[in-house]
Specification:
about 250 residues; single chain; 8 helices; WH_DNA-bd_sf; six-stranded antiparallel β-sheet; transcription regulation; transcription; alpha+beta; GntR family transcriptional regulator
């Protein structure tokens, strides 16, 4: 009598086998940045339905092997960019600096989960700082930083009338004076919404890594940052000597 579990008796999905074959072809036949043949040609070459091919391509994109861009097609992806997201115990939301560029600061309504973290009723707008992370001049992440009401004084009148980046930098400067208690951080896999896709030059529904950081001050959550990273471009590291790569599959 066989002792194999039902799961082990199941055959490997066709798209998964095709994904392995395609990965080998990427290693031997294509170079970084090269555009792949269209779906019809690839499906004919490997003798599969286009639906099966799309599943395999989706998986390779999720694993960072391929990139899909509007008007360009599907290309072989370069190695992922390492992004250090290791939390500093008392570092506040304005401490990262570096390649993060301030874009704007305005009122916006956070998602219900963020509102709960901030102890606010759903639908209440809060001051929100928008930033973009650049790597080699290209956007690889976008962040919305939601601030508890009254956390920092409002910028001066002149700054309020200034351009968006100036308003955002003024608020970030004030955040550096807040005595932060600490933070906690969570990472999950998601898909790009229309706005994130536009900002990151991706297609809607493309895989992304979502990093949510809750900053505490005076014993309560005072700020929540929701950062969306391109999953095909970024590998998130946590200050280890060996980079910890987050992939799916």
């Amino acid at each position: 009598m066989s002792t194999s579990s039902p799961a082990r008796q199941q055959s490997e999905p066709k798209y998964w086998h095709l994904k392995t074959v395609l990965a080998q072809a990427l290693d031997t036949e294509f170079s970084v940045g090269q555009t792949l043949p269209n779906e019809r040609e690839l499906a004919a070459r490997f003798g599969v339905a286009r639906a099966t091919l799309r599943q395999a391509l989706d998986q390779l994109e999720l694993e960072g092997r391929l990139q899909r861009r509007r008007g360009v097609g599907t290309t072989v992806a370069p190695p992922r960019v390492g992004v250090d997201v290791s939390p500093g115990r008392h570092a506040g939301p304005a401490a990262e600096g570096g390649a993060w560029e301030a874009v704007d600061c305005a009122g916006s309504v956070p998602a219900a989960a963020v509102a709960r973290d901030l102890g606010l009723p759903a639908g209440r707008p809060v001051r929100t700082v928008h930033r973009v992370l650049l790597a080699e001049g290209q956007p690889v992440a976008t962040e919305q930083l939601y601030l508890s009401p009254g956390l920092v004084p409002a910028p001066g009148a002149a700054q309020e009338r200034g351009p968006g980046p100036e308003r955002a930098r003024a608020v970030l400067d004030r955040l550096r004076t807040v005595p932060w208690d600490g933070q906690d951080r969570a990472v999950e896999l998601g898909s790009a919404g229309a706005e994130d896709a536009r900002l990151l030059d991706r297609l809607p529904g493309s895989p992304v890594l979502i990093v949510t950081t809750r900053y505490t001050a005076a014993g309560r959550t005072a700020a929540v940052a929701v950062a969306t990273y391109r999953a095909d471009t970024c590998r998130l590291t946590f200050g280890d000597r060996e980079a910890l790569t987050l992939t799916a599959g």
